[in-house]
Amino acid sequence: MKLTSARAALMLGVAAGTLGASAPALAQSGANASVDSGEIIVTARRVEERLQDVPISITVFSQDQLDKRNVTAINDLVNYTPSLSINERYGPEKASFAIRGFNSDANTAPTVAVYFADVVGVRGAGNTTSGNVVGAGAFMDLQNVQVLKGPQGTLFGRNTNGGAVLLVPTKPTGQLEGYIEGTIGNYDARRVQGVLNVPVNDTFRVRAAFDRNKRDGYMRNRSGIGPKDYNDTDYFAGRLSVVADLTPNLENYMIAHYSRSNTNGYGARVFACDRTLTVPANGAVSVRGLYGIAACNQIDRQGSSPLDIEYSIPDPYVLIEQWQIINTTTWQASDSLTIKNIMSYGQFRERTHIQLFGGNFRVPANVTGIQRGAAITPVTPGSPAPVIILGPKPGQDSTNQSTFTEELQLQGDGLGGRLKYVLGGYLEFSRPLGVSTSASESFTQCRNPDDLSTCVSIPGSGNISDQWNQVNFDNHGIFAQGTFNFTEKLALTLGGRYTFDKIVASDKSIRITVPPSPGVLPTCRDSFRHFTIVAGRRVALPVTNRDQCLTVLTEKSSEPTWLVNLDYKPTPDVMLYAKYARGYRQGGITFTTTGIETWKPEKVDAYEIGAKASFRGAVSGYFNIAAFYNDYTDQQIQATPTVDAVNFPQVTGGTVIINAGSSRIQGIDVDASATFFDSLNLTASYTYLDTLLKSIDTSGINLVGTPYTAVVSRTAKGGPLNFAPKHKLSVSATYTLPIPEELGRLSIGAVYSYTSKQEGDTSLTGFAAQFGQLGPRNLLNLNLDWKGVGGSPVDLSVFATNITNDLYRTTPGTGYQSFGYVDTQYGPPRMYGVRLRYNFGE
Fold this sequence. Notes:
Elements: H1 5-20, E1 41-42, E2 49-50, E3 58-62, H2 63-68, H3 74-77, E4 84-87, E5 96-99, E6 112-116, E7 119-120, E8 142-149, H4 153-156, E9 163-169, E10 177-185, E11 189-201, E12 204-215, E13 219-221, E14 229-230, E15 233-247, E16 250-263, E17 269-273, E18 284-285, H5 287-301, E19 308-309, E20 317-334, E21 337-356, E22 369-372, E23 375-378, E24 388-390, E25 399-414, E26 419-432, E27 436-442, E28 444-446, E29 455-457, E30 463-485, E31 490-507, E32 510-513, E33 523-524, E34 531-534, E35 537-540, E36 551-571, E37 574-585, E38 588-589, E39 598-599, E40 602-615, E41 619-643, E42 656-676, E43 680-696, E44 708-713, E45 727-736, E46 745-755, E47 758-759, E48 773-774, E49 777-787, E50 794-801, H6 816-819, E51 821-824, E52 831-841
Parallel strand pairs: 6-9, 13-19, 18-22
Antiparallel strand pairs: 1-2, 3-8, 4-5, 6-7, 8-9, 10-11, 10-52, 11-12, 12-15, 13-14, 15-16, 16-20, 17-51, 20-21, 21-24, 21-25, 22-23, 24-27, 25-26, 26-30, 27-30, 28-29, 30-31, 30-32, 31-36, 32-33, 34-35, 36-37, 37-40, 38-39, 40-41, 41-42, 41-44, 42-43, 43-45, 45-46, 46-49, 47-48, 49-50, 50-52
């Protein structure tokens, strides 16, 4: 199925016209497929409110909707949520959200905060996107998922420029109940879930849930080396929730959740190469020539299906283990004051062994050497030609981090109920659990990076960056937000927060040449700071102890964020609002680019107007719309530094984050739902997003005292932002069949989503520019759901996702200029299965 932008807009118009025909006025967001909007409760302002009473653009999914869409991980949520995108450059387990064009990459802080039970995800501190989200299995047994769009810095703190995603778990109830559920599907999918809710007594309630999910990968490895497939699923998750009513006015709510995911990681397909490359008569080629020709050879043999790949790494894995304990104490101090304390402690550990720029390359048959200037280094035709492999040191973690948070809130009302407020303070301390290590093997592949005899490499090019670092984060804030009702129809909300951030990072990384020359010692990776003088020239410092390479950096910032919102309700079912908010994302540190390792915070000024409307009767539902404009300054963008190779021959380049961008982001969000005679439910959600990188100014970057002569942005001025599709549309229909009530409740449904083309890397130019763009995707899901089969306690579901088998790319190609070829990842193909649930209890 192919759909142009014009057809997407036409479909939106048809859906909106159908759903909004009975609406008394326009409104602004939501998405529940089976209930009236008045029944949807959200916590977007840290208190429970009706969706339609909250002047924020929100999309909400119930657990039933998540099940029908087969959402089991954060990357599944993206296809059905307009405004929400994702960066999967390092695989789905390490993905990061983007909302309304606010994207994060490398090791920058997220732009979208992910919360579970009112607590932000446990931090990670690796060199790639990792951590800061919820663990595998978090989408089980939820009350709902709320996607808040636009800056949420007042109540949710730093790193919410794009918005926030809130996962609200089901709270223990006063009934003895539960279920056990099993799912089987293609790709040998096997999943078992279970929930048990026990009211121990009138004041003590317990709820336990687990999720075991395993599925083969859909990217088929044809090399015969390592696993037979990639992009698999293999996790266990468990959760225990306890509610204790200590007194009639004092409640303690404790949640402990754990998850462990252990997969083969992502598999990328080599899908384009530079076929103009040739081998000279002397058999010597450049590094780019070697890999470009080897990639063309692989493309010719690996198979025609986009899901066929070849990898040369024998033991890849992405192992992520995460746990967290959350304790919430709520005291109803008086009729007008509630005091809430939210405390949490969690740990995040990751061990990742993955192959970047995926391939199973061999030195081409007619290549006998690598040309570097006038020198030629011999190579053996047919020998392995590894590119880059990332992996932890034996017995150590790629990253490990603990996070402690403490938040105290005072919620209340005053002035005769006309003022409602939330104020409080927040503390967060994130500390390393040990050393984060990584052996980044460039043009080298080792069975054990601690034993160089196990390594093969491209002669003259192979090296190992033996990374060793620790990162400490402190984040504190004070905040207040209040809504004053001038009348029953007119209200003003003012909010403010002051955030204090501090990062202290230490690094002792070394660089090792492979194969090592006799007597040659490792050098500090930061060879600009750690050097010695030989014959009057500055050269990298040989080290016998990595402590000689110690570098400690600190990045501090403190910034205010705020919110001003005016809302007007001409009728109880219609709300109009206008708001202005300031967003803030903290800075960061990297050790890959000496002298320009730190970057400062970025900020956004966001303006939004919207409306929300509900309607009832034979046709019930809502129709919501919001228009937004964002002024994005001090934008953190990726850049590549140019090394002064004459004076600093030992320094290598890398990727740096700089505050040099200024962008404009504007668009429209529409959400609507209508239920006809309690039997047919239709929903439609649409986002139009127009982004523009207005300027790039690198003049303020001080390169004096650094080994670099220039910094070149990897984002193109005058173009759109990465991972910001102009059109996203999702429509669904659910029809409940008119069968006798004693036979159960039988429904059939379909969900269609469309995402227009989007940029994944706007820095690519010329012939390579086409590889940086991701094409459109069209996904159609079908499901049959039978609750209470034949009046029994059994539920039966049959589902199929991506039924048209649309094979779409999820990541851009990034290696064309350096290596002469491009690899890319693909989203899941057609998946289908059967789900059976046995319910028990009251």
